Structure formats: C-alpha cells, structure tokens
Amino acid sequence: MRTARRTRNLSECVGAILLTLSASAVCASGGMLVDKHRLSSSLARLESTLQAPYDCSSSAINSTAHRAVLRQLTRHLQDAGMMTHSDAAGNLIGRVNGRHAWPALVMGSRIDRPSPHALCAGLAGAMAAVEVARTLHDNGTVLDHPLEIIVWADSASRMPDDDLDELAINQRAAGSIAAYLEVQVGHDEVLPPGNAALGVVQRLAAIQRWNVRLVSDDSDPTTAEQHRQLLEAASQFSAAVADLEQSAPATRKPELVPTLPRVTHNAAADTRFRLHLCAQRMDEVDTLFAAVHGLADRIGEETGTRFNMARVLALPARDTDPKISEAIGIATSQLQLSHVGLHGDCRHAAHGIPALAPLGLIIVPGVDTSRGINLSPPLPDALANGANTLLRTLLELDKLRQERSR
C-alpha cells in the first residue's frame, strides 16, 4: 500500500509507471524537467485537430487540418517567447535570441506523413521540442546560443514544381547551425514497444533524393488519352515501388520512400514524384536506384510514357558527431535513464541537415502496434523522457562553446 501511494505521488514528476524507468530516480537528479501533462495534453489537442487520433493521414500538405495544426503550433512557439515565421518551403520556424550571436541550436520535427511508418510520430517530436522551449521560457532560462525550432511542413518534399525544401536549407550557410536535435518515435524493428531504454542514432544512413518527372509520349499534350496514360503509369509506378519497399529487408537495410504523385492539368501535363532512397551504404542505394529505374523503364514502355530522373541530393553514410553522443549520454545519466545505440534508417535522414550541422536523434519507443496500426504515438512517460533528454542535451551543448572560450 505504501509503495503504491509513493508511486502515485511521484507520477507528476516524470511518470514512469508504464515504463520500467524509475520516476524517483529522475526526480532525484534535480534541474529542470518538462511538464509531462502539458506535453501530453497539447499533443492530444493537435491530434484532435486532425480529427483522427492514431491516424494522421488527414494531415495532407496544405489541407485544412494541416493549416490548423500549424496555427496551433505557432501559438505554442509564441507562448514560449519565440518569434515565428514561415520560410519559402512553408516550414514553420520559431526563434529566440541567445546571449551571443552564435550559430543557433536547432530542434525540429515534421508534421506531414512521409511514409506509412510515420503517422503521428512527427507531431510527437514537434511537441517535444515545443515543450522544451516552453520549459526554458517558464524558468527564465536564456541560452548563450540562439534557439530555433523548425516544424517541417513537407519533410518528404512533395511540392511538385520546385525544390523548395532544398531552397530553404541552402539558405543556411554551413556553420550557421551549431547542432540539430530531434525526438522521433521508433517503430517496432528499431526500438521494441515498451522498451525502457531510449534510442540514440549513432550512424546515419546513406541517402539519395531524386526528382522524377513522368511525361507522355503522346504528340498531342492536351488529349484525355494522355492524362489517362499518365495516371495509369503513375499508379503502376507507385504500386511497383511499394512492392519493392515491402520486399526489401527490414529497417537498417535499403528502404524506399516515394512521395505522392501529382498531375498538373496544363499544356505540358506531367506527373512528378520525389523519390527517397536510403541504405547503410551508398553502393546499396545505387543498387536500389537501379531497381527503381528498371521498373520505370518497363512501365514507360507499357504505357507510352517516360520517366525522367534527376538526382538532387546525395549524402553518404556517416557517424554522428561524438560531441552530440557525449551530450546525450550526459543527459540520460543525469536523468538516470538508459539508452541504446542505433543505426539510422530512412526516416532519420533529417531533411538534409547532416550536410550543414552535427545531428542528434533521440528515439522514444511507441506503444504496442499489435492492433494493426503502423505506428502509434508514444506513451506519455516515454515522450516526457525523450523531451527531458532533449532539454538536458540542449543545455549541455550550450555549455560547450562557453567552456572552449574560457
């Protein structure tokens, strides 16, 4: 009876009832902690806005629900003392200046659905970052570095006519970001549901991103037959790529994430895709691309269409920055949490950020997906543990430059 009462009293600290982590140990570590209940309730309201808890398929880019979520997140960022704006790609950015005009420490997550494995996971990561900013603001803590949060509105880069996400990233000069941190929800193959440990990505996968333009061989670009050909070819290509992805080895092996096709009804009608490829080595990515290209050639011959492909991004596999790993290790030690090292999969590409800045990815376990759901939101305790680790890692990284300058 005493033990049960003590556990209930500790639940407001970090709540580790459903996980095997010790709530009393986390409280004993001292320092700032996020508000778990505020975090979970804010996430629930976002999911309610999408009108589909556990299924974020309604968060299509520029949909009514998508815009409503962006408005809610904008208010949250402003409540955390941040100035907000949207960049050329539609990404929401919040920023608060630090004591020095140093490169920014950046947190982020996406709120779209780049793959069937993602669903609501991006919302959870976005709210973890927001809650960290709110906790700092509530405590009157000003970092030495500027602090930014990027809510990626289109992480799969589905915009068909321009490389807007590359444009947004390329506006940042190398060295303008001190570090990028993100909380993500791991699917079953990465971090089993109910696992007491957090995951920390220690090696990033090799990735390539391709623009794919599907055009008709019909000499008359305005005929209904041409549109039928394009739609048929697009449908076959999407299905073939999905089959290839399903038949590929599990996570940590080659994975393919095609973006959704869009047909433009104009004089030069075509269909555009954004193709994402990833594997543990670049030669495996090349092999995967060759397989996709073969599918495109076959479908093109059968449907009287052509697939024109242009590579827009290639990042080799690489280890994450040891300073980031060390900072996360210090954070989990302070919180008396355990963590396990992981290899990143396609979802950990983090929008091309590895080309610009050191990257840290903290993976929290999702709930049991035995109900047939690809990926559910994490338990409140797991997400709070991830957010607290994010907060402590941020504070550790903020100290690094100050210590070097002494």
UniProtKB/TrEMBL annotation:
SUPFAM superfamilies: Zn-dependent exopeptidases. One of its GO terms (molecular function) is hydrolase activity, acting on carbon-nitrogen (but not peptide) bonds, in linear amidines. Keywords: Hydrolase, Signal. Residues 1-25 form the signal peptide. Coiled coil: none annotated. InterPro entries: Amidase_Cbmase. It comes from the Bacteria. This is Peptidase M20 dimerisation domain-containing protein. It comes from Woeseia oceani.
